[in-house]
Design brief:
The complex is a heterotrimer of chains A (160), B (798) and C (425). With 160 residues, chain A is α+β, with helices and mostly antiparallel strands. Chain A contains 7 helices and 4 strands, in the order ααααβααβββα. Classes of the chains: A alpha+beta (160), B alpha/beta (798), C alpha/beta (425).
């Protein structure tokens, strides 16, 4: 089940009620992603049914946005900012260390399915550079030495 | 009307014309990729830059995005502009493979042309190129995404122009992907246009792949023979094989595009079973022998039974020249037993349609520009696919499209739908003739009345009718309705869908001549002893095959002149092979009365691929070209009449003889064609009435055309077979429930031609009480012919 | 140390969010009340025009002038769209405002809608700003409860609905017409102009588009008056305060509200804590990633719209990003260009294919593989991409390249001459 019957019914009702159903594409995709971590092909097909569009029409929009994941991701996505402010304060070294610690390259997911590492553009945390976001938590002024503890904390948070 | 100066030449253009188009009027081609006459300007490729020296805009701008204004002085070739364009090409080439020598687009590649023209010869970028996985887009189109230059033409054509929803653009930035959600055949029946609009080798004709380089093709302007619209096409042939068709531009008819039936229906000309030799009985003979046998038999019959014993039949596939000479020859023989269509309903329908006032007749261009179109008994995608595309263009501009039909009608656009049974169409048409009336005796008439009021109020109203469903009576009623819904400033135009590419020509020439039923009667009574069929297939096209078979069996001589192995050919005593459209010249008159000439593309002959058994070069040599015996039907007729075979002389004679064909001799295949000068005179009064009210629990059988599988010639094109459905019957959900039948299951349909086992389809979008079957040649449904009144039938589980 | 009484940041306490009660305590919604009670929509527009407020989103177009093109008095559906797709690197001011004080924006949106005769507003927020979205949703609930949002606001007869839209990434969505497409659920490629959004915008209807900070200034213009607001700026042509971002190689990066027209050096020294690690100032982006660099010779320059234009750059979003003397400007520029190339929507050739080519050239130069020919090519790219792209993204992207070639040509040439980056050990 990508979405509960109730969620589907609610979304369909909203689609019916809005004069511009297409406006809801991202809302529907977000709902599917929030529930499943990513949007699978079946997710695109479900969104298409909810929205009354073809899967291709949904896919055209879904593949445009980098924060709609069309490939499986780990339980938590690590977005590490690679834009200018964070770059100026050591994000490249941070990225290297993260890859070492996780044993994966950018764009990959750890073998245990816990983390996916994705470089991202500016997170709007320039005063707290270098910054990264893990799941919904934003980490600022991250020192290389802190990374292990941060990752451990995130792992424990999931398991607890 | 702004006046501007482009490259020192002054031009005045209509308000709203952009500078790129204005330059074109001066014969100046500004390099571009994303602009397309039919698709408009979007400013994506940034190649069409020009320099504005004077006027409201200054500096370097994209000519496609700047509307022409008074006082502009434009330089399309300044040093800065040329250097910039070379840069754009360099950008586009950074990811384009250097595979021109093996690319399917080579020779007709806009990118190749622009790269050479732009002076970009040396690649400075030496980094890696982006690559893609291709998709299987079905039988028609090959996909090579690595060659893409992201001009967005394909997606604009497919989605915006054609209304398809299964092909588009994915991703972003330098990683765009033009394709489908997943592998699979493209769903739009206009998908083939992607081949023409793609400026590189991304989307190419799969059926033509690896056959020829384009400079080796023989090409000439031609007309598509697969429906009555007469779309302009350019077929290409090589080694005696018709290898492809692409769209040609005619702004009055198809515009820039064609449908997939037209594009991929070409295979009939190469069909391995195509009869290419004269036959006497089943014996191959020489032309001389065959002609002598024919002449002798005709003379004998004429002497014994009089000229009335010879019947002549042509069809809507025959050219105007063939139809005219058939008529001439009938006169020369002294026979009045001449008919231009084997299907009496279609014959009379076309005669009525061809009698419409010319100023009330709509072209496809008129359809594209209408603001209200009411379709009654017309299923465009099945009967005249490009009409659907024209309607879509009207809808995109805000036109209201109303479909009144018993069948489920699919259109690539939003439209209003009224499912109305065949017998109630008459009531509706009555209401349609009364735009001013407020009280109606029935709801159907009231619906007609409300549509009539809307037509009366519209700026460019249009009534579109399918003659198969309307019948001659309904066609006439629609003409009357159009009259009633017309105002001096806003005439309500009509468009009628006819059976074939030259139904109109036959209708003009047939005068008050007999229908084929009366010829059949003559055969049954033994009055008619010989039937000469010029590109006509009465066995397949006369609705009652049992009757026609029996009647033909009584003939002393059945002579068939055709380019396809028809049902009638199987019964013929004498056979004469004729040329395919692409192998000859001639004139066809489309459903709006537009005479259109076509040129010869190549000479008939067995394709080398077949005659050489796949080996190349050929291992044997002869003076004769294998399979080259087919001759144009009008050429054979000329020979039989001992006339010269000169086309120009023939056309001059036709126009002198009949003022309606004025201008025929000046007709250029490359032009837009020419409307006939006057409609036919015709009155239906002596024809039988349409009735057919049946018991309410009696299921009625309606036979209709379908996109692939109904039309004779395209059905012989092997590349369409994958897209042709297998035999099915459609029922309304209510009826399916009534007879306890399930979607997708086999059912037994009891029809006048026997019990047929078919797959059931359930369609909510049709009238209840009706079983709908497509005409599908080569299946159990073949004997069922559209254009007849609904027949009683029964249905049960198989 | 020069400071000013904060307007937008008056309720800002780091780590806290002020909601309706706190917002009202410091005069919140008095602007809306005044506008609805004492002013006609036209007089609100007049006041904003007289204030000299310029768009804070980057382009710096006069807000009053933009509003004067809007068919405010035409009946029929019209929209206000608030652009909160703050994604330009070095820019984080709108986030600060929404984290601290969401009602500020809401009041601005409502006054703008009143002034422009609009009944429906959309606030378009980038995906990363989930907390901001939550704050806004909460603020809207409070406002609705208090009769400040919805039907018949404050009994004035004016009604307005506000929707918060959560985006899903992509810098191009900040381009106003791409944003409209995104809102409509279409691919966010920019639209061609004309028609301008004020004529044909969201769902084909007239649409006013303003940045978050811009709208948050409006309540203060209404309460304090245009003349007072204008007088807040340090420069003669400037107007009001500005949320300056301070990031990069500084001791204390921060976001701070100051009078418009702060001198660059003073801002860095007094609020950024000076260049970090006792290094010296080499260059900065004055207003986000798309603005050409300023160098040490520009430290006295006032950060306002006009002055920066005179020195060949722009105030942009007001996000100052400082580089110390150990920074390789080729590498910095490459980082910026990789961002822009990655964020291109892919619509037009110069942006889609030109920016990656620029990245390739900068990469070669930075890696010491560059040639004189590459330098020529880089100059050609600047010349041919600038002003030839469909929207302003590529133009902005070339800002840093422009700055690089203008101020640091020698450094680029050193890379080529030495066959390595001179700043790397």
């Amino acid at each position: 089940m990508l979405l509960s019957e109730k969620q589907i019914t609610q979304l369909k009702r909203r689609v019916r009620e809005t004069p511009h159903p297409r406006e809801m594409i991202l809302d529907v995709l977000h709902a599917i992603q929030d529930a499943n971590g990513w949007v699978s092909d079946e997710g695109v097909e479900l969104a298409a049914i909810i929205l009354g569009l073809s899967p291709l029409q949904v896919e055209e929009v879904a593949t445009f946005y980098d924060k709609i994941y069309r490939r499986p991701v780990g339980r938590k996505v690590i977005h590490i900012c690679d834009s200018i402010c964070c770059w100026s304060r050591g994000s490249e070294a941070l990225m290297q260390r993260l890859q070492q610690l996780l044993g994966i390259a950018a764009g990959e997911t750890t073998i245990d399915g816990m983390f996916t590492l994705l470089p991202t553009c500016c997170l709007g945390a320039c005063a707290d550079a270098p910054a990264l976001r893990i799941g919904k938590t934003l980490y600022g002024k991250v020192a290389i030495e802190q990374l292990e503890a941060i990752l451990d904390g995130e792992r424990t948070e999931v398991s607890s | 009307m702004p006046t501007l100066i482009i490259d020192n030449q002054t031009v005045t253009v209509p308000e709203g014309t952009n500078v790129l188009e204005a330059a074109k009027r001066l014969g100046i081609e500004i390099p571009h990729f994303c602009h397309h006459e039919a698709l408009g300007s979007v400013g994506a490729c940034r190649l069409c830059a020009v320099e504005f020296r004077e006027g409201p805009v200054k500096g370097i701008q994209m000519s496609c995005m700047v509307p022409a204004k008074d006082g502009m002085v434009v330089d399309t070739g300044s040093a800065e502009v040329l250097a910039y364009r070379a840069q754009v090409i360099e950008w586009l080439m950074t990811n384009h493979p250097h595979d021109c020598p093996v690319c399917d687009e080579g020779g007709e590649c806009q990118l190749q042309d622009m790269t050479v023209a732009g002076g970009h010869g040396i690649r400075r970028y030496t980094g890696p190129k982006r690559t893609y996985q291709n998709q299987n887009l079905g039988p028609f189109i090959a996909h090579e995404m690595n060659r893409c230059i992201q001009c967005y033409r394909c997606v604009r054509t497919y989605q915006d122009y054609c209304g398809g929803t299964d092909f588009g653009v994915l991703g972003s930035r330098q990683r765009l992907y033009f394709g489908r959600f997943s592998d699979g055949p493209l769903e739009s029946p206009f998908a083939g246009n992607l081949i023409d609009v793609c400026p590189t080798g991304v989307l190419t004709d799969k059926t033509y792949r690896f056959k020829s380089r384009i400079w080796d093709l023989q090409e000439a302007p031609s007309i598509c023979p697969h429906c009555s619209l007469g779309c302009a096409v350019t077929p290409g042939a090589r080694y005696r094989q018709l290898q492809r068709r692409r769209a040609r531009t005619n702004n009055r008819t198809n515009g820039h595009f064609i449908c997939d039936r037209g594009r991929f229906g070409y295979g009939y000309a190469n069909h391995p079973d195509r009869p290419r030799y004269p036959l006497l009985g089943h014996r191959r003979v020489t032309w001389q022998e065959a002609l002598a046998a024919l002449q002798n038999k005709l003379q004998e019959l004429g002497e014994l039974f009089g000229p009335g014993s010879i019947g002549l039949l042509t069809s809507s596939r025959a050219t105007l020249e063939t139809q005219f000479l058939t008529k001439r020859w009938a006169a020369a023989l002294g026979s009045d037993q001449l008919c231009f269509e084997a299907h009496p309903g279609r014959d009379l329908g076309a005669r009525v349609a061809a009698s419409q006032r010319l100023d009330r007749t709509a072209s496809l261009e008129d359809v594209r520009n209408c603001d209200l179109a009411v379709l009654i008994g017309a299923d465009p995608l099945s009967e005249a696919p490009m009409l659907a595309l024209a309607l879509r263009q009207a809808a995109r501009r805000g036109a209201r499209i109303v479909v009144v039909d018993p069948r489920p009608v699919e259109l690539p656009l939003a439209y209003e739908r009224h499912a109305v049974s065949v017998e109630k169409l008459g009531q509706l048409l009555r209401g349609l003739s009364r735009p001013q009336q407020s009280e109606f005796p029935s709801s159907m008439e009231e619906l007609g009345g409300s549509l009539a009021s809307a037509l009366l109020a519209a700026k460019s109203p249009l009534l579109i009718g399918g003659t198969d469903l309307l019948g001659p009576q309904g066609t006439e009623a629609m003409q009357q309705a159009a009259e009633a819904c017309s105002q001096p400033e806003t005439p309500c135009r009509t468009m009628f869908l006819l059976a074939g590419p030259n139904s109109f020509g036959g209708a003009l020439l047939s005068a008050e001549g007999p229908c084929f039923s009366s010829l059949l009667e003559g055969m049954e009574q033994g009055r008619i002893k010989a039937l000469l069929c010029f590109e006509a297939d009465p066995l397949a096209d006369y609705p009652d095959r049992k009757r026609s078979r029996a009647a033909l069996a009584r003939l002393d001589m059945l002579a068939v002149f055709d380019c396809a192995a028809t049902a009638t050919l199987q019964e013929a005593d004498l056979f004469f092979p004729t040329t395919a459209v692409e192998e000859s010249t001639g004139t066809l008159i489309n459903n709006e009365g537009r005479m259109q000439a076509f040129e010869q593309v190549f000479s008939a002959g067995t394709p080398l691929a077949e005659s050489a058994g796949g080996s190349h070069p050929p291992r044997f040599f002869s003076r004769d070209i294998p399979g080259s015996e087919p001759q144009s039907a009008w050429g054979i007729l000329g020979a039989l009449m001992g006339r010269s075979a000169d086309l120009l002389t023939l056309r001059s004679e036709i126009e002198k003889n009949d003022h309606r064909f004025a201008g025929l001799s000046q007709l250029e295949a490359r032009g837009e064609g020419r409307r006939i000068a006057a409609p036919r005179q015709y009155s239906l009064s002596h024809q039988p009435n349409i009735s057919g009210i049946m018991g309410s629990d009696q299921l009625q059988l309606l036979v209709t055309e379908t996109l692939y599988g109904s039309e004779l010639l395209s059905n012989l094109s092997s590349c369409l077979h994958e897209s042709t459905p297998s035999a099915f019957v459609m029922l309304h959900p209510q009826d399916a429930a009534r007879f306890k039948l399930e979607e997708g299951k086999k059912v037994l349909l009891g029809t006048p031609v026997g019990d047929l086992t078919l797959t059931l389809r359930i369609a909510g979008d049709m009238v209840p009480g009706m079983a709908i079957v497509p005409r599908l040649r080569g299946t159990v449904l073949e004997p069922l012919v559209p254009g007849t009144e609904p027949l009683p039938c029964r249905i049960e589980k198989a | 140390m020069r400071t000013c009484e904060p307007l937008l940041f008056k309720n800002r306490r780091i780590g806290e969010t002020v909601f309706l009660e706190g917002y009202r305590r410091t005069g919140g919604y008095q602007g809306l009340e005044k506008a609805l009670r004492d002013m006609t929509p036209a007089s609100v527009r007049e006041e904003v025009k007289a204030s000299g407020l310029r768009g804070r989103g980057g382009a710096g177009f006069s807000t009053g002038l933009k509003w004067s093109f809007f068919p405010s008095d035409d009946p029929g559906e019209k929209y206000l769209v608030c652009n909160g797709d703050e994604m330009e690197p070095g820019t984080f001011k709108d986030r600060q405002l929404l984290l601290a004080d969401p009602h500020h924006l809401l009041e601005g949106v409502l006054i703008a809608c009143y002034a422009l005769g609009i009944g429906t507003a959309y606030i378009f927020l980038r995906d990363a700003y989930r907390q901001c979205a939550a704050n806004l949703e909460h603020a809207m609930d409070e406002a609705r409860e208090a009769g400040l949002l919805g039907d018949n606001i404050l009994g004035s007869g004016f009604s307005c609905e506000v929707h918060v839209h959560r985006s899903a990434g992509r810098y191009i969505c900040g381009e106003e017409t791409a944003l409209l497409n995104s809102l409509e659920g279409l691919r966010p490629n920019p639209r061609s102009k004309p028609p301008f959004p004020a004529v044909k915008g969201l769902f084909g209807k007239p649409t006013a588009l303003n940045n978050i900070e811009t709208l948050a200034n409006v309540p203060h213009i209404i309460t304090g008056g245009a003349a007072w607001y204008k007088s807040l700026a340090l420069t003669e042509k400037g107007s009001g305060t500005k949320l300056y971002g301070l990031a990069g190689h500084l001791e204390t990066p921060c976001c701070v509200e100051l009078p418009l027209g702060m001198p660059l050096g003073e801002l860095i020294r007094d609020f950024g804590g000076g260049v970090w690690q006792q290094r010296s100032f080499k260059a900065c982006l004055p207003g986000g990633a798309s603005t050409p660099y300023l160098t040490a010779e520009h430290l006295d320059v006032a950060l306002d719209y006009e002055t920066l234009e005179q020195v060949g750059t722009r105030l942009g979003t007001g996000g100052v990003v400082v580089f110390d003397d150990r920074t390789c400007m080729v590498a910095a520029t490459l980082n910026l260009l990789r961002f822009f190339a990655r964020e291109s929507c892919g619509w037009c050739t110069p942006c889609r294919d030109g920016l990656p080519l620029v990245c390739w050239l900068l990469e070669r130069i930075e890696l010491g593989q560059g040639t004189r020919e590459d330098m020529t090519m880089l100059q050609e790219q600047l010349r041919y991409i600038n002003g030839r792209s469909f929207c302003a993204l590529a133009l902005g992207a070339m800002g840093p390249v422009d700055g690089l070639l203008r101020h640091f040509a020698e450094e680029v040439e050193d890379h080529i001459r030495l066959g390595r980056c001179p700043l790397q050990a």
